[in-house]
């Protein structure tokens, strides 16, 4: 599950777990994240920002394969169908972040694997702790292709072709310093606390601009036209300047 807390003009979205700190993405957690983002959107004003953090040693360990197996009743084909269902549900989470009317920051303080990495890079900025955590796309290792929206998200957010190649075709596990050098994240910090503090400082810097959230979201969408196309997001022209 997750919680949403607002302090001043900063929303904190925290992945809290359900007896496990892996924060695996199943329909329940996906719905919880979408509900929190909807609440943040409804409370957004000029000059707000959102930080996503997670409890424990994982940021998110990807889709909940154990849930798919359990809910399938022992049917391998049904488990695959449930996994596909989760993949489709997560598409809406990506769309929610891309259209959220405020800057977003992921403070990755633990492992971010597969859909967990996708969750992180759906934010505008990604900060990471050096103390613990790797970034990892596991699909080539487990034997699973990626849907179109995931590939477009990777192309949109990971600029260097060789980095995309190594992450997707070699399944490399990337630590914080290397992730900065590869352009996967924006900054690395010594530990969890400093990464979260860095996220708060960045949020404070951004909210001072008092940007109009709708305008911010539309400019963000215009940065990623291919991604918006596959997510079904439509851009709008807005003029709210004081002329």
Automatic annotation (TrEMBL):
<protein>
    <recommendedName>
        <fullName>Delta(3)-Delta(2)-enoyl-CoA isomerase</fullName>
        <ecNumber>5.3.3.8</ecNumber>
    </recommendedName>
</protein>
<comment type="pathway">
    <text>Lipid metabolism; fatty acid beta-oxidation.</text>
</comment>
<dbReference type="Pfam" id="PF00378">
    <property type="entry name" value="ECH_1"/>
</dbReference>
<keyword id="KW-0443">Lipid metabolism</keyword>
<dbReference type="GO" id="GO:0006635">
    <property type="term" value="P:fatty acid beta-oxidation"/>
</dbReference>
<dbReference type="InterPro" id="IPR029045">
    <property type="entry name" value="ClpP/crotonase-like_dom_sf"/>
</dbReference>
<dbReference type="InterPro" id="IPR001753">
    <property type="entry name" value="Enoyl-CoA_hydra/iso"/>
</dbReference>
<dbReference type="GO" id="GO:0004165">
    <property type="term" value="F:delta(3)-delta(2)-enoyl-CoA isomerase activity"/>
</dbReference>
<dbReference type="GO" id="GO:0005777">
    <property type="term" value="C:peroxisome"/>
</dbReference>
<comment type="similarity">
    <text>Belongs to the enoyl-CoA hydratase/isomerase family.</text>
</comment>
């Amino acid at each position: 599950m997750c919680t949403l807390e607002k302090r001043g003009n900063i929303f904190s979205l925290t992945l809290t777990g359900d007896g496990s700190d892996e924060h695996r993405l199943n329909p329940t957690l996906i719905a919880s994240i979408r509900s929190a983002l909807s609440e943040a959107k409804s409370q957004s004003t000029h000059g707000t920002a959102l930080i996503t953090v997670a409890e424990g040693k994982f940021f998110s360990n990807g889709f909940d394969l154990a849930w798919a197996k359990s809910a399938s009743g022992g049917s391998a084909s049904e488990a695959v169908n449930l996994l596909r269902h989760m993949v489709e549900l997560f598409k809406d989470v990506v769309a929610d972040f891309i259209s959220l009317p405020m800057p977003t920051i992921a403070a990755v303080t633990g492992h971010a694997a597969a859909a967990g990495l996708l969750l992180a890079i759906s934010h505008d900025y990604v900060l990471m702790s050096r103390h613990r955590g790797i970034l990892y796309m596991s699909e080539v290792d487990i034997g699973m292709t990626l849907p179109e929206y995931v590939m477009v998200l990777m192309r949109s957010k990971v600029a260097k072709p060789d980095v995309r190649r190594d992450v997707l075709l070699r399944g490399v596990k990337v630590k914080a310093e290397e992730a900065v050098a590869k352009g996967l994240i924006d900054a690395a910090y010594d530990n969890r606390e400093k990464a979260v503090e860095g996220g708060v400082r960045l949020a404070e810097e951004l909210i001072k601009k008092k940007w109009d959230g709708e305008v911010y979201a539309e400019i963000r969408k215009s940065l990623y036209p291919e991604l918006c196309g596959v997510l079904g997001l439509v851009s709008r022209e807005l003029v709210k300047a004081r002329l």
